[in-house]
Write a structure and sequence with these properties.
The protein is of the alpha+beta class. It has eleven helices and twelve strands. Helix 2 packs antiparallel against helix 5 and helix 8 packs across helix 9. The chain is elongated and about 130 Å long.
Length: 504
């Protein structure tokens, strides 16, 4: 019975209102108390320290004034006059300390010439050694706390030590505690009655609604928080369903894109296979004719050109076959800097001089695994797109860096991990949002008829995905474009191979 009663109490609206309110009030009151106590403590501490510091200066001035009087009278060398003046000075200091509630001592040549208070000599020595001159420190002695400072009057070799108990400080803190305790009690009483009436005000319409529902009647109250809470939860549920539907559409679109790429791959694979057979015939006959023609024959150079052209075409068919086979390339440990440098060499020799090429390659770039030829083709394709976007010239920048994706993901489907990153950035015409949504679609192009097939970026997308990476695009009209490729890293180091790229 008691257990059921407690369960009803803890689940009641009154408890849900009053309990958090009291907890928050308690936490707020505690925080406020700590803040006030620290503020008052700090103020009192600084005030007392400043007061003691001023009194220490007053005592020092007493000594200085008496010494000045001796000098003015011209008796500073008379031992009797000096002894008399010192005695008078000690008396003045003693009176000053007594009037101001100070304790302490004056030590001359390791001998106490004045002592006020029941302190051991060791305590005076500790103050003289540990406390910095003209500063005030809070020390503990015989279970009590004291403020202490000292100064050195060099002409008479006086070490003047001042001590003041911290009772005034403690008394102030006690007053603050009492005042705050009284304020806290009043606050809690007011809070209790306020919450009590607030609870009754809220429970009345809720109870009425519950009674109406039990009777089978529709409640007529509006603007009640519980209904607002319910509507909020319904809105959140609907939003979650909409997000889920959008995610399904995105996945459907991604699947459609993949299917497109697969269809293109099948078509490209068939064409590339037949084309490759033709090229083998061309290469074979070109090699046969070169064997029959002397090197100094005028036909030897054209045959060499035919052979090189056929080899480049064969390399292209190799790339098409690689794309058609979904990344069945020849993987090897690679450094993207080597891949980028090969492409940079090509574009600097072939691109218009109106296009300025800048590079920022990270020397500590992580190693990836992939097909070098395919990745060169990817970067070159992006550079060619950037060139076409800058008909009047501009800047093409290629950067490499490392990225450790942990919390914030560029895409929801991106796995966490370490990636080697390459950026291809241009200052070209840029793209609008509608174009950005479709740039990786096969056969989609913004170029004039006959100047583009719409396969370049689709090929880039396919190769990057087949390497386990992903690509992002940041672009805006008249502001240029930035393509960023992320490729997963491996632990194995890449073998650096220096190659001379022929432009023949």
């Amino acid at each position: 019975m008691m257990k059921e009663y407690l369960r009803r109490i803890t689940k009641s609206l009154a408890f849900r209102i009053l309990a958090p309110a009291f907890v928050m009030a308690l936490l707020a009151g505690t925080g406020l108390y700590v803040f006030i106590l620290r503020s008052v403590s700090g103020f009192a501490d600084e005030h007392i320290k400043g007061n003691i510091s001023d009194m220490s200066l007053d005592i020092y001035n007493i000594c200085d004034k008496n010494l000045t009087d001796l000098l003015l009278k011209g008796v500073s060398g008379d031992e009797k006059s000096v002894r008399f003046r010192k005695g008078m000075t000690i008396g003045m200091i003693e009176d000053y300390m007594t009037q101001n509630g100070l304790k302490g001592a004056i030590i001359e040549n390791e001998k106490e010439i004045l002592r006020i208070g029941d302190f051991k000599t060791e305590f005076f020595q500790k103050i003289d050694e540990d406390v910095k001159e003209h500063t005030v420190s809070l020390l503990k002695y015989a279970g009590e706390r004291y403020y202490a400072t000292h100064s050195h009057f060099e002409p008479w070799n006086w070490h003047m030590i001042l001590i003041k108990d911290a009772t005034a400080y403690s008394g102030l803190i006690h007053k603050v505690n009492r005042a705050y305790a009284s304020a806290a009690i009043i606050f809690l009483v007011v809070l209790f009655f306020s919450l009590y009436f607030l609870n009754r005000y809220i429970r009345y319409p809720v109870s009425t609604i519950i009674k109406s529902i039990k009777k089978g009647e529709m409640p007529e109250y509006k603007g009640i928080y519980e209904f607002e809470f319910l509507s909020t939860n319904i809105a959140q549920t609907l939003e979650a369903l909409q997000n889920e539907e959008k995610e399904k559409e995105a996945l459907k679109e991604q699947l459609f894109q993949t299917q497109k790429l697969e269809a293109i791959g099948t078509l490209a694979g068939g064409i590339a296979h037949d084309f490759n057979n033709m090229l083998q015939g061309i290469l074979g006959y070109a090699a046969f004719l070169k064997m029959k023609v002397p090197a100094d024959d005028p036909m030897y150079e054209p045959l060499t050109v035919i052979e090189h052209s056929a080899e480049r075409a064969a390399d292209l068919t190799k790339k098409l076959l690689g794309f058609a086979r979904k990344g069945k390339y020849i993987p090897e440990p690679l450094n993207l800097n080597d891949v980028a440098e090969n492409v940079i060499t090509i574009i600097t020799r072939t691109f218009d001089r109106k296009i300025k090429t800048e590079t920022a390659l990270n020397p500590g770039l992580w190693t990836i695994e992939g097909d070098k030829s395919q990745l060169e083709h990817v970067i070159l394709n992006l550079c060619l797109n950037s060139r076409d976007a800058m008909p009047d010239g501009g800047t093409l920048r290629i950067e490499t860096s490392n990225a450790d994706i942990c919390e914030e993901k560029p895409r929801r489907y991106v796995q966490e991990g370490k990636y080697a990153v390459i950026n291809v950035i241009d200052t070209g015409t840029g793209m609008n949002e509608e174009t950005l949504k479709r740039i990786f679609e096969p056969f989609f192009t913004t170029k004039e008829v006959g100047k583009g097939t719409g396969m370049g970026l689709a090929m880039v997308y396919g190769v990057v995905k087949n390497h386990g990476g992903f690509i992002t695009v940041d672009s805006a009209p008249a502001k240029g474009s930035a393509f960023t490729i992320y490729l997963p890293v491996i632990e194995k180091k890449a073998e650096v191979i220096n190659k001379v790229i022929s432009t023949a």
